[in-house]
Amino acid sequence: MKKKRIGIIGMGNRSYSLILPLLTEQFNSRVEITAVYDPDPVKLDFAKETIKSETLKLFDNREDFLKSGLDLVMVCTPQSGHAENAIAALEAG
Fold first, then answer.
1. Global confidence as pTM
2. 4: which residues sit within 8 A by CB, 6+ positions away?
């Protein structure tokens, strides 16, 4: 079975708690976090240290992130950004 490629929008407390289970042996045979978008370079560094994947791509531009070949997108921004980011992900396919 091919792993589902997951992209994360927003790398704060919310995403940290949601991605930890995905990094466990129970899930990592089925899914892979391949991209993270956050405009804050500190949070992108945190993503790199937390996810520890050689194939992980980090983006400070949402449009480039959405073109990176994802199967699923997790919107983990503060609630005020959910609609805008979810709509952008849906429009990108």
1. 0.92
2. 30, 31, 32, 71, 72
Of the candidates 78, 13, 72, the residue with the CA atom closest to the CA atom of residue 47: 13
pLDDT digits (tens, 9 = 90+) for 7-24: 999 998 888 889 989 998
- Report the C-alpha gap between 34 and 67 in whole angstroms: 12
Residue-level length of the chain: 93
31-37, strands of its sheet edge to edge:
57-59, 31-37, 4-9, 72-75
Amino acid letter, 10? G
Q: How far is CA 30 from CA 14, 25, 41, in A?
A: 22, 9, 28
| Partners of residue 74 on adjacent β-strands | 8
- Please name which of 76, 62, 86 lies closest in space to residue 8, comparing C-alpha atoms: 76
